[in-house]
Predict the 3D structure of the following.
Amino acid sequence: MRFATSLAVFFFIYLQLINACDSDLFALQTKGTSGFVFTQYLLFSSDQGSAGTCALKCFRTASCLSFTFTGVKEPGNCRGHDQIMVHSDGKLPAAAARSFAFPYKGVWRMKSCMSVADCGPVTNVMCFRNLCVCTAAFPIYSESLNQCISDCPDSSLSSNFMLYLDAGIDYNNLGDLENTTEDECKAACVQSTSFTCRNVEWQDSNGLCHPQNVTARTSFDTENSAGWKFWQRHCQ
């Protein structure tokens, strides 16, 4: 009981700090993101009364790593994202908006890196194309465990994905969807009913989308996949 009380007090103070928006102890304000909302990697858009309640919603959502609060009373003033948003991500002007990231919550995932040491003290992770991602032997990110695992039951697959740049899996395409956007390609995978889609390959130049039901453990091609984005589904 004493521990639960202490935790409640800590989190109350944590939320007060967020509402004050003046401390790096509770969240890292992402450089260059004040005054914008982001259009990519959106998990939710909801109405919240303060930055503190917006932070709490993100904190309670397993795959939420960063959030933006616009500070105005309008629909969707709290936006949660499954990646740490940076100034180069798609964004729209919003004068009062400020974005925050949780520095300790799965922060290694999709983090920029020069070597695996930049990904932190986690196992089964590699620095691939300057992003921290799961290795081919443990290719699936578990949202509940915040670590890379070797496999995931079909019923536990998430609607979120991990990105591998210039990569793919040969000879396992179960469809050829043309002229799709990146989000449409991933949505087609999640909504597939004829087979369990575990990943997609998407080509930016022509919108070609290849749904697949295998993982990177099957055959991971990093030599002949320039211009392709490989998205591996998470496990819940």
Remarks:
- The chain has a mean pLDDT of 78.
- The chain is about 15% helix and 30% strand.
